[in-house]
Design brief:
Shape: globular
Bound molecules: glyoxylic acid, magnesium ion
Largest sheet: 8 strands, parallel, barrel
Distance between the termini: 32 Å
Order of helices and strands: HEHEHEHEHEHHEHHEHEHHEEH
CATH class of the largest domain: Alpha Beta
Number of helices: 13
CATH superfamily of the largest domain: Phosphoenolpyruvate-binding domains
CATH topology of the largest domain: TIM Barrel
Strand content: 5-15%
CATH architecture of the largest domain: Alpha-Beta Barrel
Radius of gyration: 21 Å
Structural class: alpha/beta
Number of strands: 10
Mean pLDDT: 94
């Protein structure tokens, strides 16, 4: 893993808040919400006639707003429209220093990522920004994108996340359901399992984060929680939130439980002790009734990394007698 990607992979993204770029009231309110990431949208939450003005509204809010503690992303329009280049040029020239990533929707192949990478590089050089700092988030929203997800994940060192776009995806494959993220009636298993796993494998192969998309029944927080848990259980890093009511649920679902976080930190301590000189340089050890080894350490690192990124504090401490 390159050090650049290593740094990118560490950004917390449990909750990724969608904010229409054309709505100053929402852009104002979003700054006070506890989402790990905000993305200011120029695509589907922004009507075609509102897009030109929204580009400038976004520039203003990125430069003048208080987004501290949040990853700042702008979603541009996809390359099949006439809007993409102006979205990127206006936003990055106007507010590139206040932007962490550009999200590209409906990505179909590596060339679309490379085209965005080249455009970003030109703008960075022109306006004197550090070349390569702005990352790319790629949305997978149709069959072609999913079939090409490996080459998309590998297309640029700017890549940070692969994002599942369930609404467009369901439409693109003719899934027989209108409720985004919910199971289509009549199918006896999980209709999303293959798609989510395919995205997750590509993301993990290239050290990227995997993010689940929106849940549109915004008043049904329990429904949101269930769908979020499905992605979190597989290993996804976070999910979109469309409404303040979904933020807390997402932050909770994608962080480890306190018990799992404490357990992970204990495994790391116990393993570090047992493999040390003082602990007898052992390759495996016991923590209570549990045998732990190098593979346990790797699993514990994932859980502790997510807990630390979420600002959790441990409530137990390790003593050598426990090992
Ligand atoms: C998000 O963009 C989706 O299509 O679900
Ligand atoms: Mg979409």
């Amino acid at each position: 893993m390159s050090s650049e990607n290593q740094q990118r992979a560490l950004r917390p993204r449990r909750s990724c808040l969608a904010v229409p770029g054309s709505n100053p009231r929402f852009l104002e309110k979003a700054q006070g919400l506890a989402a790990d990431q905000v993305f200011l949208d120029l695509e589907d939450a922004c009507a075609p006639l509102a897009k030109p003005e929204a580009r400038h509204t976004i520039v203003k809010f990125l430069n003048e707003g208080d987004w501290s503690g949040k990853t700042r992303v702008v979603r541009v329009n996809d390359w099949t429209t006439e809007w993409t280049y102006r979205d990127v040029v206006t936003v990055v020239e106007g507010a590139g220093a206040a932007l962490d990533c550009v999200m590209l929707p409906k990505v179909q192949d590596a060339a679309q990522i490379q085209a965005l990478d080249m455009l970003l590089t030109q703008i960075e050089k022109t306006v004197g920004l550090e070349v390569g700092r702005i990352g790319i988030e790629a949305q997978i929203e149709n069959a072609k994108g999913l079939v090409n997800v490996d080459e998309i994940a590998a297309a640029s060192p700017r890549m940070e996340t692969i994002v599942f776009g369930p609404a467009d995806f369901m439409a693109s494959i003719n899934m027989k359901s209108l409720v985004v993220g919910e199971q289509p009636p009549g199918y006896p298993a999980d209709a999303y399992h293959y798609i989510l796993m395919r995205i997750l494998m590509a993301a993990r192969t290239h050290d990227l984060q995997a993010i689940d998309g929106p849940y549109l029944q915004i008043r049904d927080v329990e429904g949101y929680r269930k769908v979020a848990q499905r992605a979190a259980a597989l290993g996804f890093d976070g999910k979109w939130v469309l409404h303040p009511g979904q933020v807390e649920a997402s932050n909770e679902v994608f962080a480890p439980s306190q018990e799992d976080y404490d357990h992970a930190e204990m495994i790391l301590d116990a393993y570090a002790y047992c493999t040390s000189e003082a602990g007898g340089k052992k390759g495996s050890a016991m923590l209570g009734d549990e045998m732990i080894d190098e593979a346990s350490r790797k699993m514990a690192l994932v859980v502790s990394g997510k807990g630390r990124a979420a600002g959790m504090r441990r409530t137990t401490s390790f003593t050598p007698e426990e090992a």
